[in-house]
Amino acid sequence: MSQRTPPPSAEQQLVFLAKIQRLFAEGDFTATYKFALLISLADLAVELGADDGAELTLSIRQIAERFIQLYWRHATPYSTDKSGMATGILVQNLGAQATVITQISRFRSLHGVHTLPQARALKAYASLLTHVAKTASAQPLTYLQNFGGGTDPFIYEHGGPGIILLKAGVAYCLRRFQPLVQQLSRTHWVEHIKNNRRNGLVLGESRDLEDFLFSSSRQSLAVVAEGLRKLDGDRCFYCGHRLIESDVDHYVPFSLYPRDLAHNFVLAHSKCNRSKSDTLAARLHLERWLERLESRSDDLAEIGLKAGISADSTTTKKVAAWGYSSACQAGASAWLRAAQYDVAASGPWSETLKGVASAPSILSHGEYWDILRPLTASLDIWETIYLHALTGEDAVAQWASGTSLRPFLDALPADLREGFFAAYAAAMRPIYPRRADGTTLLPFRRLFIVAQVQG
Ligand SMILES: [Zn+2]
User: Fold this and answer.
1) Residue 112, class by beta-carbon neighbours within 10 Å (0-12 exposed, 13-18 middle, 19+ buried)?
2) Where is the domain boundary, 214, 243, 261?
3) Per-residue pLDDT, 21
4) Does residue 161 share a domain with residue 79?
5) How far is residue 162's CA from residue 434's CA, in Å, rounded to a whole number?
6) What's the gap in Å between 352 CA and the centre of ligand 1?
7) In the predicted model, is pLDDT for residue 110 greater than 90?
8) Residues 125, 72: Cα–Cα separation, whole Å
9) How many Å lie between the centroid of ligand 1 and the Cα of residue 235?
10) Which residues pair with 248 in a beta bridge?
11) Has residue 343 been placed in a domain?
């Protein structure tokens, strides 16, 4: 093993983010390929990278495999369900249709396959992969790093035939900022398709385009639900109570990692699913989830196969580990909140606290963007992790008791309140240990917004 490369400094990370932002603002986007490439690179960094500053070698075929996943559904006709609108495959290039879409669509009809696992089982799939790899190499991989009138290879360089090399620190940044890269890419991707005049007849005023492009198909989720009921019984994964109607839930939230993996699904009450919303289910569930992933791995893979959803237990585990470590580092609020629900559900206070929710958090950066953009001439939003240096006993729990923990404390009578707070403080201690000098560090996300109104 070579020596561990240190992760990039905070300044280097900011430089990386600023360049990503410039790439979107100043790059040329003839087709949607560059968005697909950024999403693919971020996902591969999550799945294959590590939390140090090391370079990461990726094969162009790995990227092509991602392209096929991303475009698989896009190569089928889109319909708005509205009368008077045409049905057709959305055009994803400003000139002729994007080659990758044409290749996938031709492959689908030639072989009569509907799902990716079916496609992968065919011999001909290898040649589809080769074609897509050629396009990926000739187009987005060649041009992604051109912006602002020059070339700045800050993400990768070519590492030999069929190989690219993510530069030192890049895999780290992509893992760290994966949700942001995803969101930016998806927003621009949707806009690209909407702004392509040739899609006008098909799209109309359609609002569900983003769902069509990026969400799991309802059909396959229904197949997953049926399989999970057989496997796990009619029980909610989180609360253990009987299910009547059930939601198929992404254990690592879809908002964090928007890709379907069979091993990442559990059945849950929609109420339990919602209370978890976009935070990661707390540690209480993690062990049980990991245990189930190991012991039922083959069954889960089979459910995926039936539903046409990729199955890969190793990747799913890596994604979960990544999700937990980044939530712990960056989204302290997710941790603080997840533990609040855990503690609330297990103790003499659980009846009283049923239905109580953490104080609402601030909106996501994307939501602020959507609200402010129409009102402003220019808008800059950035996020940073501010390290609160807290002092005193159980400082993190004390800190939360003034904010997100408040509704729980308020709902309890004095005798239960004390026990509840003690249990919450105990849950926080191992996550945020007190340092030798008595300080407890709490990394907390802070959002900065600079908006200018035309004057
Ligand atoms: Zn439940």
Assistant:
1) exposed
2) 214
3) 86
4) yes
5) 48
6) 17
7) yes
8) 13
9) 8
10) 267
11) yes
CA distance 78 to 86: 9
Q: How far is the CA of 228 from the centre of ligand 1 (A)?
A: 15
- The C-alpha atoms of residue 226 and residue 237 are separated, in whole angstroms, by 15
Contact 282, 342 (CB under 8 A): yes
Domain identity same for 233 and 370: no
| Residue 319: domain span | 218-328
Per-residue pLDDT for 131 more than 70?
A: yes
Which residues pair with residue 446 across a beta bridge? 384
71 and 201 share one domain: yes
The end-to-end CA distance of the chain, in Å, is 59
Give the Å distance between the CA of 243 and the centre of ligand 1: 7
CATH label of the domain that carries residue 365: 3.40.50.150
Å from CA of 267 to ligand 1 middle: 9
Co-location of 314 and 335 in the same domain: no
Output the CA 216–ligand 1 centroid distance in Å.
22
* Domains of the chain: total: 3
Cα(247) to centroid of ligand 1, in Å?
10
Residues 312 and 437 both lie in one domain:
no
pLDDT tens per residue across span 144-175: 999 988 999 999 999 999 999 999 999 999 99
Residue 238 CA, ligand 1 centroid: distance in Å: 5
Q: Are 139 and 33 in contact (CB under 8 A)?
A: yes
Task: Using alpha carbons only, give the angle 237, 242, 243 rounded to the nearest 5 degrees.
Answer: 75
Residues 304, 199, single domain; the answer is no
- Band of residue 101 on the pLDDT scale cut at 50, 70, 90: very high
DSSP per-residue string spanning 137-195:
HHTHHHHTTEETTEE---SEEE-STTEEEEPTTHHHHHHHTHHHHHHHHHHHHHHHHHH
Q: How many residues does the chain have?
A: 455
Q: Are 147 and 23 in contact (CB under 8 A)?
A: yes
Q: How far, in Å, is the centroid of ligand 1 from the Cα of 309?
A: 24
Q: How far apart are CA 455 and CA 433, in angstroms?
A: 49
Q: How far away, in angstroms, is 350 Cα from ligand 1 center?
A: 14
Same structural domain for residues 263 and 305? yes
